[in-house]
Design a protein that fits this description.
The chain has a 4-stranded antiparallel sheet with strand order 1-2-3-10, with no helix packed on it. Strands 6-5-11-12 form a 4-stranded antiparallel sheet. The longest helix is centred in the N-terminal third of the chain and has 21 residues. The protein has a single domain, classed as Gamma-adaptin ear (GAE) domain (Immunoglobulin-like, Sandwich). With 231 residues, the chain is α+β, with helices and mostly antiparallel strands. A hairpin with a 2-residue loop joins strand 7 and strand 8. The protein is 24% helix and 24% strand.
């Protein structure tokens, strides 16, 4: 085809069938991009660098919490936990000592202003809330088939993996290092869970088995701090 013919072909209007194919392709690419999104754990900074933290200099251990209560922060997840009644809280514990500390008996607790005691959800708790056993028989309107998702207990394999990767699961913190992960608190019936709330952590033990002093973090430290973008 010569140059004139090529130009003419670009000037010709697309038929209805062509438009349908193009739109279907664009939509499919968008869905594929969403499906391909992978959860990436945020990088942990030293716990004392977060606004909401408690530092025990004599024990050389610091703890921090960073709620993912805002939409831009929570966008790292493919699951909208807030819409399902959960608030992800990024939890970091830093050990600046020369011996490891044990987290096997660790207990985290979020006490709200009305004195409700919230404890981190288990993986089973999250899967139970996120499960949607009702199936849809609505036919796919696109002219091309969409990839099928493997499901387990009504939750996609991708969601299952994301929860397992995100949830805090460390049993110890090695010397001069930090452990991090997410704690998920059930806030389904609480309109403003952070205002006036306090985070408590107990059960952290040193290398000799001695329990460290409990950690207490007023969540107002987070609410009143200027917004800081972290990697």
């Amino acid at each position: 085809m010569d140059a004139a013919g090529l130009q003419k072909s670009f000037r010709e209007p697309l038929s209805g069938a062509h438009i349908s194919v193009v739109l279907a392709f664009v939509l499919f690419c968008g869905l594929s991009a969403i499906a391909a999104k992978q959860f990436v754990m945020p990088t942990a900074q030293p716990a004392r660098s977060y606004p909401a933290h408690d530092d025990h200099p004599s024990e050389k251990v610091a703890v921090a919490v960073d709620p993912y209560d805002l939409e831009d922060k929570a966008s790292i997840f493919s699951v909208n936990f807030r819409n399902n009644g959960y608030m992800p809280v990024f939890f970091v514990i830093t050990n600046d000592g020369d011996q490891p500390v044990s987290l096997v008996g660790m207990k985290a607790e979020l006490n709200t202003k009305d004195r409700s005691k919230l404890f981190p959800a288990t993986i089973d708790d999250l899967l139970r809330r996120l499960s949607h056993p009702s199936r849809s028989d609505t036919p796919n309107p696109l002219p091309i088939p969409l990839p099928k998702r493997e499901v387990k207990g009504g939750v996609s394999r991708k969601t299952w993996d994301e929860i397992e990767q995100a949830q805090f699961g460390a049993e110890a913190v090695e010397p001069h290092s930090s452990a991090r992960g997410f704690l998920f608190f059930d806030i389904e019936d609480i309109s403003n869970p952070l205002a006036g709330a306090n985070f408590y952590l107990t059960g952290v033990r040193d290398a000799k088995g001695n329990e460290l002093m409990y950690f207490e973090i007023p969540m107002e430290k987070y609410l009143s701090a200027p917004e800081v973008k972290r990697p």
